[in-house]
Amino acid sequence: MKNFWLLPALPLLVCGQFPDRPNVILFMADDMGMGDSSAYQFLTKNSDAQQILTPAMQRLANMGMLFTDAHTSSSRCTPTRYGLLTGRYPWRDRMKHWVLFGVQGDPLIEKDRPTLATLFRSCGYATAMVGKWHLGLRYTRQDGRPAAGWEDADLTKDVFDGPCDHGFDYARFTSRSHGTSGPDAGTTGLRAGKNKKGDRNTPSQSIGPGHIHNRRVIGATGQGKQLIKKGENAYDLHSLGSRHSDHAMEFLNQHLRNQETSFDPFFLYYPSNSNHGPYTVDRKIGDKEVKGAGRMVSGDPASVRLDYIYENDVALGRLLDFLERTRDPRRPSKKLLDNTLVIFTSDNGAEVPSKTATGPFRSNKGSCYEGGHRVPFILSWPNGEIGNGNAGNPGKVSDQLIGLQDLFATFSSILKVNLPDLREGDKGAEDSFDLTPALHGKPLPMRPMFYNDHKEGENGAACAMRIDNPAVNRKIVPGKWKIFFDDSLLREGRAQATQLFELSSDPMETKNRLPDENLKPLVRRLVSTALLHRNAGGHRFVSIAPKTRIRLDWRKPLPVPSPLTFFLSTKGGESVRDHEGLGVNGQDSSQVEPGEGLAIRFQSDVLIESVGLTAGEKGGCGGFFRVGKNSPLAIYCTDADNDAKDQQGIISDLGILKKGDRLILDPNPHFGVESAGSWKLQSMVVRPFPEK
Which residues span the domain enclosing 526? Predict the structure, then answer.
């Protein structure tokens, strides 16, 4: 089968045309807990001597509103960023837990998946991101072909897949966490401490590409992987705060001063590197001192960690100052602040197990307990009646349950854009709900919310699900119920509950209610809800997914139950089936090997829940799968590609395969450069739609 390099078409979005479309600035800090902002001191009860003062965050909260029950979809960096930008839980992709490691990390977002950036760009927005990407890159080889990894990458060539392939017009970024994005070119103690055995910035360095501008590795020298060591584009860890802030200001000024773009709205995504370790505090941002300038509410000097948090506050304040003093070209009598939706949040909880940092919640980053995923969420939009823009008045406070994955549907609602039509086979925002009622003080409908990556579990792919005031036997069971499951829910679609907490009475999650016999009906209800939403392919699929589930198991004598009809073709030889599954008897073994492949189509539309592949003793992961005309996705198996942590054993959440379209399972690498696979098709679970 041929290689697939073409950019698939994104779903067509029809945007509402109205003059007051807001500008949007989405600022996401790194590793920041509820106790890391003085805006939340009323909730955390930190003393003035314990609480870092964050005046810009407090200013934003006073101008608008803050949420006390906001959550990330995961408790770690990479998956939260995926959920935020796509409106889809990250575990529906290949990562069931952990983050992308390595200097490349195969891009987590496929090229035809809608993102916040493609949403805004389709509605006439200028789009930009500055800061930390951490969703994977694909480099380019010397011959212009996509690289298999870091080893065959030519850093003088444009990046083959990065933010500009996912909706961003302007991108100035680090590939992932700053300490692992490139060899430090600074002259501070950090570099001296790390480099006692010599300079790590050599032609064979394997740390990372340093600064990237759009597609260009700006510090490439052409001497292997060595980066420049001096000048403004040298990768200095202690200058990242000012660099990202300066680039944000550069984008805004260029956009507003250009007569061709100044009347277009803008979307700025600003995922900062701070305060992820190492704590490399910048000396100054704009005209404000940062290093050594952080203060506790009591007035005492802050620690280096809290200085790094203060760095975010200074960067946010610089943006607010700019918006307050700059005239809006589209509304000349107003300042930009009036019609700019500014959001401040974090990618997960605090990286330190400190109650001062996490607030009155259990655990921290990497945990499905509240301290791992409950985060600050502060916003203002005066023209949209989210606050009045007056920092001298107290803002509003909401205790409604919201998630960062909900921003896709929320922005779509603000822009008057319909979400992708899942029933017609489109993809996008599968788990996203519109938050605009909550932004105006109205209640949101009940829905479950999932959090994954749990370091306290026996396996990191364990997860939790929360539902408030669920109905059991037509009666409401009051409370904020949170149930934990082992890794089998995300990996295999089976639910084994491990813990149950009621957060209203037990926010620290200390009393496991799972053994309570009186709560067995509630547990059954929560388990059934978890299975429904996990296996439907997305929250938005639940209302349209057929109830009939058919498991095709090629290890058994009769794999195709009536009335389902499907067609399977092979390339390379005849298909064979044995106790391991379905393969092709065309080359060295009965596995599906390079040069072979499976193409499956059905005689009705089907929702594909999962596809199980087994490599066997002589096989291996590799190749790609493709649903209809969608972008191909690489096949990964357990313990592959991300620092010995798992990605996927079973390919799940494939979406709808339309009648007559083909599901391609191919062991050949779709870029022609990665490792090939050799495996068998073990099983498939589908839900057929009735004929129209």
Answer: 457-541
